[in-house]
From TrEMBL:
This is Stage 0 sporulation protein A homolog. GO terms for cellular component: cytosol; protein-DNA complex. Residues 122-222 bind DNA. May play the central regulatory role in sporulation. It may be an element of the effector pathway responsible for the activation of sporulation genes in response to nutritional stress. Spo0A may act in concert with spo0H (a sigma factor) to control the expression of some genes that are critical to the sporulation process. It comes from Candidatus Choladousia intestinavium. Residues 3-115 form the Response regulatory domain. Keywords: DNA-binding, Phosphoprotein, Transcription, Transcription regulation, Two-component regulatory system. Residues 122-222 form the OmpR/PhoB-type domain.
Length: 223
């Protein structure tokens, strides 16, 4: 499931956007630049909805920070209707620009456009003798097929999308058990990881692919 970061200091509007998108996307909310930086610390979302005027700084300047490390789609949200403001945002690297007030249906349509699958193989990962096709839900090691539960598939994909980086336990729980996190015991994640490890076995280099980063989370090892 694609992940969206909503950076908007108006709580009512932020909540409204989340409600409009939550059935299709994993929505993470931030109400200040400081909070957004914390949420983006080791994990970049698939799309960012960015307010221009924030209580602790400029959305335009934050856009510059984002563009120095990522080309993730950014849709600017602003009450400004001046043509130069729109031009400035687009020239600074914004992908789209929506002025307030706006229709949540229009916003949802814009988000769909920017997150539309552009390649049939986007959900296919290959490493060593492993092939993971999340589009067809077909997983294999060499010629041997692997039967993975939906929970294991979500867990595996999150680790693969952050290959070589530590993914926190909190983020994994949020991604795997979206909307049910208050009912999930942290032990459930440990059990799911151990089951996935057992099914995958060792890679071509003789190592297990999932490393435990004690006290933090897990990492998918690159070869």
């Amino acid at each position: 499931m694609k992940e969206i970061l909503i950076l908007e200091d108006d709580k009512k509007l932020n909540d409204g956007i989340r409600l409009a998108l939550k059935n299709e996307y994993l929505c993470r909310q931030a109400f200040s630049l400081e909070e957004a930086r914390e949420k983006m610390g080791d994990h970049m979302p698939d799309l960012i909805l960015l307010d221009v005027n924030l209580p602790d700084g400029s959305g335009m300047e934050f856009l510059g920070e984002i563009r120095r490390i990522s080309q993730v789609p950014v849709l600017m949200l602003t009450a400004n209707k001046m043509e130069m403001d729109i031009v400035s945002g687009l020239e600074s690297g914004a992908n789209d620009y929506i002025t307030k007030p706006f229709s949540l249906m229009v916003l949802r349509a814009r988000v769909r456009v920017w997150l539309r699958e552009s390649r049939e193989d986007e959900g296919v990962f290959r490493q060593g003798d492993f092939t993971f096709d999340f589009n067809r839900m077909e997983f294999s090691r060499g010629k041997a097929g692997l039967e993975l539960s939906r929970t294991e598939q979500k867990l595996l994909r999150c680790l693969l999308e952050n290959s070589g980086r530590t993914v926190s336990r909190e983020l994994l729980i949020d991604r795997v058990w979206q909307g049910e996190t208050e009912f999930v015991d942290e032990h459930a994640l440990t059990v799911a990881v151990n089951r996935l490890r057992k099914k995958l076995g060792q890679g071509a280099d003789g190592r297990e692919r999932i490393r435990t980063v004690y006290g933090i989370g897990y990492m998918w090892l690159q070869e």
